[in-house]
Structure formats: C-alpha cells, structure tokens
Design a protein that fits this description.
Helix content: 40-55%
Number of strands: 5
Largest sheet: 5 strands, mixed
Number of helices: 10
Order of helices and strands: HHEHHEHEHHEEHHH
Distance between the termini: 41 Å
Bound molecules: iron/sulfur cluster
Radius of gyration: 16 Å
Structural class: alpha/beta
Length: about 200
C-alpha cells in the first residue's frame, strides 16, 4: 500500500483529541495524489466533510472546485487537507491544543507529498507557515523557502459569508500558475520556515 494511504489509515484511528474523537462521525485525513505539485490546506472539516470523511465537499468545496477549474485544474490533481482532521462540534474554531496535536499528521503528509507549492486557505492554515501575519495583508503573496512556495489565500468559505471577498479569492487563485512557472527564479526567503504561532485577524 502507498505510504500516503497507510498514513491516512493511521490518522483515521487517531484519538489524540478526546472531545473531537468522541464527537466525530469520520476522520477527514485529506485526499489527492501522492505526487501532487500543489497542496491546499484548509482549517477543519465541517458537517459535510465529517459525514463523508472527505475534505472540502460542502459549499466551500464547490467553490474551491470552481477556483481550481479557473486555472485548469481538477481537484483530483491536487492534494487537499486541513490543519485538523476532525470536525469541532458546532464548527467552532480549532483550539491551539488541537492544532498542536494534529500538526505532526500534516507534517508527515507534507513530507510524503513533497509539494512544490503549499496554498494556505484561511488564517489557521496561514498561521502555521507565516508567523504573526495578518491574512488581510498577505493574501495573494508568496514566499519561497527550501524550494517550496508558500502562498496565502482566504478560505473559500469566507466568500460564502462575505460576498466582497469572492473576487479577491478568484484573483488570488489566478496567480498560482505564474508563481509555479516562475518557481525557479523566485528568491528564497531569508527567514527559516515558521513554526505554529499566533495570528492576527
Ligand atoms: S484532530 Fe487530529 S490529532 Fe485530534 S483526534 Fe483528530 S486526527 Fe487526531
């Protein structure tokens, strides 16, 4: 069995967060090809994801698929995961302890997939890779570190709650192909990869 499938099976048995493990219907480890060039990382499973055990399958997922299609990609060509793999009851925000507990799973996924680009969707995902930044300031911007492009975007669900963000998200998505095409000539950031940190709204 491929290493990534084995890892997802391991994640599906995880009980590290007692409350989340007790209340989930299904774990949502992530999905996509092991050799994906781009990895999209969202926040946490919602109701639909929890029911199906798949990431981004509700209304936000539909919008993500439209966004991917705008750059000629299908969801089956990219890897999609979340910062935490189990749905918080009532869709509350993930707790720092839950993000910390789940982080090693995400790190192992990144290690196996070794993507050329990591797109963070929303502030929780952004906070893992862009320390102390505000999403309203850095969305649509990229940093290259250790030959990986880190790119921050708003979460697609933000467009469902705030119509004015829809075009912003669409515009940010359209930058991805040229960033990938220019990957070789992008300068490496001076700072080392950031660790989990606090973020600003
Ligand atoms: S959120 Fe992550 S660490 Fe917590 S129980 Fe689910 S898989 Fe395990």
């Amino acid at each position: 069995m491929p290493a990534l499938s084995e890892l997802c099976q391991e994640i599906a048995l995880c009980q590290k967060c007692e409350v989340l493990a007790k209340n989930r219907t299904r774990v949502v480890p992530g999905e996509g090809p092991e050799d994906a060039d781009i990895m999209f990382i969202g926040e946490a499973p919602g109701w639909h994801e929890d029911q199906q055990g798949r990431p981004f399958v509700g209304p936000a997922g539909l919008f993500l698929e439209q966004l991917l299609s705008s750059i000629n990609l299908k969801r089956s060509q990219v890897y999609i995961a979340n910062v935490i793999k189990c749905r918080p009851v009532g869709n509350r925000d993930p707790l720092p302890s839950e993000i910390g507990a789940c982080r090693p799973w995400l790190e192992r996924q990144i290690e196996l997939i070794h993507p050329r680009m990591i797109v963070t969707l929303g502030r929780y995902s952004m906070a893992m890779f862009f320390s102390g930044k505000s999403i309203s300031k850095i969305h649509g911007t990229a940093q290259k570190r250790d030959n990986v492009i880190y790119y921050a975007m708003y979460h697609p669900a933000a467009a469902l709650h705030q119509q004015s963000l829809r075009q912003v998200i669409q515009k940010d998505m359209l930058k991805i192909p040229s960033l990938l095409a220019q990957a070789g000539s992008l300068k490496e950031a001076e700072q080392p990869p950031q660790q989990l940190s606090m973020f600003e709204d």
